[in-house]
Fold each of these.
Amino acid sequence: SIHDAIKAGFDKIVFIIRKDIEDDFRYIIGDRIEKICKNMGVEIAYAYQAIDDIPDGEIVPDGRTKPWGTGQAVLSCKGLVNEPFAIINADDYYGKGAYVNMYNFLRQYTPEKPDDFCMAGFILENTLSDQGGVTRGICKVNGDGYLTEIVETSNIEKTPTGAKVGDMPIDPKSHCSMNMFGFTPEFLDRLEVGFAEFFKTKAKENPLKSEYLIPIYVGELLQKGEISIKVLETTDKWFGVTYKEDKPMVVNAFADLIDKGEYSKDLFGDL
C-alpha cells in the first residue's frame, strides 16, 4: 500500500497504532519504512488510537476493552494531517489504480469545497472471500458517479452464481466500499463533532461493543445532504487476509503480480 501510494504521488504516510505496540511496530515495520521513505522525501508520522481518547465529559464504560472504531482511528490524526488525505485498511490490497485515481481527485482540493470527498468503488465480486462471510459497505451510485447511499452489510458470502446474505441474493456487480476514502482536512472537524454525537446516542446503546465507523458516519452525512462523494471506479481485484485460510491465496496472488512484472521483488526498487 505504501509503495503504491508513493508511486501515485502521495508524500506523507501516517501510521495509526496503539501506543503499547509502538516499540514492536517500529522495530518490525516503521523504522525500515521510514528509512526507505526518507530517501524519497516522504514524511512518516504516527497517530495513536486509545480507548480513553474520548469527548470531554464522557467516561470509558466498565468492561470496555477495545477502542472505538475506524472513525476514532482517523480522528486521532487531527493535528497531524492538514492536507487532503486518503484512508485505507493497512491489511488490504487495493491495487495500484485506486491510489492513482484518489491522488488525482485530491489534487483538485480547494478550501471552497471542504465537503467534496471521494471513495474507491470496488466491484463486490472482486472483494469476496472463498473462506466465509465478509462485511462490506454496499453502495448505490447515481448516473453522475456520485454515492447516494452506503449500507454496512455483514456476512456477505460468495456463491456459485454471485453473492448472498443469508437467503437473500446480492448483485455481485454492486459497488462496495472497502474503507478507502479520500477526505479534505476539514473532514476531521466534522468527524470530531460526529464522535461527540456518537457518545450521546449509539455508544450508550451498546457501551461495550459500539463502534464509530467511517462508512456509517459518511452514510449519515450523505442522507442529510451535507457532503458529496465521488465514486472512483476500481476494477482491480481486492485481496486481504479476512480468514487465516486466505493467506496462501494472498501469497500466491503477490507472487503472480511479481511474475507479471507489476511489482519488483525489491519492492521499492522501482521508485
Note: The mean pLDDT is 94.
Amino acid sequence: MEKLTEKFYKKLSAVSLTFIRSAMNQINWNARLIGIKGARGVGKTTLLLQYIKINFELDPSVLYVSLDDIWFSENKISDLADRFVKQGGRMLFLDEVHKYPGWSREIKNIYDDYPELKIVFTGSSLLEIINAGADLSRRAIIYKMQGLSFREYLNLECNLNLNIIELKEILDDHLRLSKEIVSVVKPLKHFQDYLTHGYYPYYREISELYHMRLAEVINMILEIELPLLRGVDPLHVNRLKQMLLIITESAPFIPNISKLSERTGINRNTFIIYLNYLYEADILKNLYRDARGITRLQNPEKIYLENSNIAFAIRSLQPDKGSIRETFFANQLSFGHTITFPDQGDFLVNDSLLFEVGGRNKATGQIRNHSGSYIASDDIEFGHKNTIPLWLFGFIY
C-alpha cells in the first residue's frame, strides 16, 4: 500500500490545473459511489487527479490507485479498502476498473461493508454496470465522459473561458451568441483543426503522432477490450477491422446487413451485435429510427463514426466534408440529447427538432414545411432565422 501511495503522490504532483474539463462541475461528488465511463484518452484519469488536487491535496484520508498496477496481480481491492479504512481512509479513487477481474462484486462488497467510505471508479466505455457479476445500478451514479467539445477545445487552445450554451438558447438566440463569441475568437479559424485532431486531449502531447496514436487506441479496443469485455471471438478481430474500414470509407453509412455479413463472413446476427459493440466502445455512432428500447439485434438506419477525428486516423484519403459535418453534429448533440433517424432531413433531436446539416448555401429542402426545423450550416460566422452556424452546436457541453 505504501508503494501505491507513493505512486499516487507522484501522479498528483505532475497533474496540471491549467485546463479543467466541464465534466468536473457536472458530477455530484457527494454521492457515495460514482462511476465515470468513457473512451480511452478522453481524460478520465486527469479529471480524478485534478479533483483530488483541488480539494484534497496531501490529505491522507484520500487515495487514488490504478487497477492496472502490477500490485493488484497479487492483492485484492477489498484488502486495500479494509486496510485503508482502518487507517482513517474516507475516499477511494479506483481508476481503470475494467482491468481488474471481478471488479464489480468487490466494489459492491466494499460499498456495503464500509458505509463510511466514498468510492469513485473509472472504466472503459464498454464497462457493464448492470450485467457485470454484481448489479451496481442501484448503488452507483454513472457518468459518461465524452472527448473535448469544440467550446472546450477553444478554451484550451486560446486560453479562454467560454461558457456552455444550452440547445434551446442556441435555437432561440444564435445571432446574439455568435456575435459575442466572434468578438472574442474567430471560431472558423480553429474549427477544421478541431475536426481533424481536437477531440481527445492528448492531441497536445505530440501532435504529429496524434492520428497514429488514435489508430493504435482503436486497435487496442478491437484486439483486447472487445474480446475481454464483450467476449468477441479473437478470430473475428480481423473481420471487425475490415468491417470498420468499410464503414469508415462510406460514412455516413446506410447499412445493408445481409451484403455486409456476406462480404465479411460474419453471421448476420453476430454482425449486428458487433455493430452495437463498436457503438458501446465509442468508435461508431449508430442512428436508429427510435432511440427507445434499442436491442443488440436491432439494425441501425445509419452509421457514423463516433467523432470526426477517427475518420482522419483510419482513412488514407481525405474524408468527405459533408460526412465530417454530420459526424460533428451527431457527436456534439448526443451529449444530453436523443438523436434519431427521421423520415425527412438528417437528424431528429429530442423527438421534435428536425435538422439538416450542410455548407453555407444549404437550402431547407425537405424540412421547409416542418415546424421546429433548422439548418446547421458550415463556413458561416453568423446565421439567420432558422439557419445556425454549425460550429455553435459545439458549445452544448
Note: The first strand starts at residue 33 and ends at 38.
Amino acid sequence: NVSMKLDTHVDTQYLNLLEKIMKDGETKTDRTGTGTKSIFGYQMRFNLEEGFPLLTTKKVPIKSIIHELIWFLRGDSNLKYLADNNVHIWDEWPYKAYLKKNNMPIPEINGEEWKSGMTAFVEKIKSDEAFAKEYGNLGPIYGYQWRSWPTPSGAQIDQIAQVIEMIKKSPDSRRMIVSAWNVADIEEMAKAGLPPCHCLFQFYVANGKLSCQLYQRSCDTFLGVPFNIASYSLLTMMIAQVCGLKAGDFVWTGGDTHLYLNHMDQVQTQLSRRSDIRPMPKMKINLERKNIEDFVIEDFELVDYTPHDSIKAPIAV
C-alpha cells in the first residue's frame, strides 16, 4: 500500500518516541527498582480514519486489549473475568498482594518460582469462587471509578453513562471528562493493583466526529503504551458508534514517559524494523451495538493485520 501515510502512521510516531527517549531520556530510579530512561511530556495524534493504530513493527495481542476494555466498561475490578478469558496482563499485582497478605516469601520476580506460583494463583482464581472474591479483587481501579465513582453522600456516579449522555445532548461541552484518579482511593488501589496510569480522558465533537484525548501520568513505553493507544482508540470508536458519530482523532498525552533499562535490547530490535513498517489494520465493529454495555469480544474483527513477530520483555512489578 504505497498511499500509506508514513509520517502519521502509528509505527512512525511510536518509533520516533522510542528514539527520543533513547537520545534525551534522563536515567531515573523508580518504584520497581528496575531503573528507567525517562522524558516528561509528549504527545502523539492518530486519525482513526487512516486505520486502526495497532503497531506493525511488533505483534500486539489485540484480544487481551479488547477483553480488558470490556472488563473496564462492565465496571468490573475482579481478576476473574480476565482469568476466565485467558488474559494475563493484570496477574502480577494481585499475586504479589496475595503473597504479602499471607506473609509468604516473594520469589524473584519473573523467575521460575514466581511464574509457577502465579500460574497456580490464577488457576485458583478461576476455579475457587471464594478465593477469587478475596484475592482477585483489585480494589477501586479503572472499571470501578469509570462506572461507580463513590460520592461523599454514599451515592455512585457512572461517569461513562454521563459522558455518553453529554456527547449526545451537549456535544460542545468542555466537560466531557472521565477521571480514574480518585485521590481518596489511591492508597486502596495500590494494595492489589496500581493507581491509574491512564488517569483522565476528555471527548470532543466537531464535524460529526468524536475525538478523545488521554492523559497518562506514567507510561511504560515499550510494554504499556502500544496497548493504551489501541485501547483508547477502540473506546473512542465504540462511544462514537453508540452516539451516532464517526471516529475522529485519538490524542495520546504522556507525563513520565519512560523505557525500563531491561527493555533496551528489545527497543533496538523494534527500531531495526523501521524500514519495514506495514499498513495499519482496520477494526470492524458490529454495527448492531447501540449500548456501551452490550459489546462482547465477538463484536470486533481486526482485518489486514500483518505485523512483525512479537518481542518479549519482562514486566516491572
Note: Residues 225-242 form the longest helix (18 residues).
Amino acid sequence: MNEHVQTAGSAPLFNPLDPEFIRDPYPHYERMRAVDPVHLTPLGMYVCSRHAEASLVLRDKRFGKDYVERTIRRYGPKIMEEPVFRSMSHWMLQQDPPDHTRLRGLVVKAFTARRVEDMRPRIQQIVDETLDRIIPQGRMDLIEDFAFRLPVTIICDMLGIPEEHREAFYAGSRDGGRLLDPVPLSPEEIRQGNAGNAMAAMYFQQLFELRRKTPGDDLTTQLVQAEENGSKLTNEELTANIILLFGAGHETTVNLIGNGLLALYRNPDQLALLKAKPELITNAVEEFLRYDSSVQMTGRVALEDIDDLGGRRIPKGESVLCLLGSANHDPAIYPDHPERLDITRPNVKPLSFGGGIHFCLGAQLARIEAEIAISTLLRRIPDLRLDDAVNAEWRPTFVLRGLKRLPASW
C-alpha cells in the first residue's frame, strides 16, 4: 500500500527545506506516520517517521554510516575533493567501527558522568555572570545574549581555548547547519562550507601548536598527544574531530535552551508550574528534548539487504533517515497527547541524542547546561516576557532545529 501514496498532484510528504515545514514540522510528521511511515523520498532516501523503525535503525548493526559512499551517491565522485566534505568524512560521528571505536575512545573520558557533574559550579558561574551583565539592560536576545554564550564558554573550557581567543567564537557564525541537511547543497553553500572549515582548521592548527608547547588539562592536549603517538590519530582526524567537538559541543545545546524557553512561554500553564515547582526542571528538560528536539534527524546506510523495515524492503547501500522529532511525537510511545508540552510527563526517554554506538557523547552535559540555564533565568528574571512568542523566526535548516533570535524584555 505504501508504494503509490504520494501522487503527482499531492504535496510532498517530506520537504524539509519548505519554510512551513521548518516553522512547524510536527503536523507533517503526523501525516507521514499515518500515510507512509517508511517513506521513499524523491531524493532516493528512505525516511522513518515512527519510533519503532527509527530506534531499530539507530541500534541495529545491519545499519552503518558509510559516509563517503553515501555522499558520493548524492553528489558524484568529485565531491570528496571539497575540503569540507573531506573533513566531515573524518568525523567520528560519520565513522563505522573500528575507526569509530578508536576515535570515540580518545575523547570519551572527558565526558564521564563524574567529570560532567563536577562542571556544575562552573556552569552556574557562567550563567550568573551572563545575567549580571544583561539584567540592567532590561532586554536581550535569548539566543545570542544568553543561550549561545554558555555552551560556547563550556566547550572552550574543555578544549583549552585561551580566554583572549574567545571573543571571535562568541561572535561566530551559526550558518553551518545546512551541511547536515538531507537536501543537497548548492555550489555557493559548498563554497561557504569550505571557507568556514578552512577558518576553523587554521585556528585549531595554531591551538595544536600552543598545546604541544604548553600542555594543559584539556581535551586538545589529550588529542594532540594521541596524534603524536601516530597510531591513534592522524593530523587530518585530529583537525576534523576538534571542529566536530566544538560545533557539536555548543550548537545543539544552544537550540535545546532556546527551543525549551520558547515552548515554555508558548505554554503559560507549564511556565507557571515550573516557576512554582523548580524541582521539576530535570523532567522538564527531558520533555523539552522530546517536544521540540534540537536535532531532528540522523541517517544510516543499510549494510545488507533488509527484508522488512516497517513493511519496506531496503536494498543494501540505501540511505535511511531517522526522524527523531517525529519518533518523539509517536502516540505509540507517548499515548497522552504527544503534541502537548507536559513537564510532568512520566517516562520521557526521547531519541533526541540518537542511539546505539553513536549516542551523543555530550548528552548529560547538554542536559545539565539546560537545567541550570533555564532554572536560573526563571528565578532571576521572574517577569521576563517574550516580545513575540507567536512569530518566532527559525533558522533555515532542518536537521539542526533552532531559532535565529528570541527577543525578550522585563
Note: The CA atoms of residues 223 and 238 lie 7 Å apart.
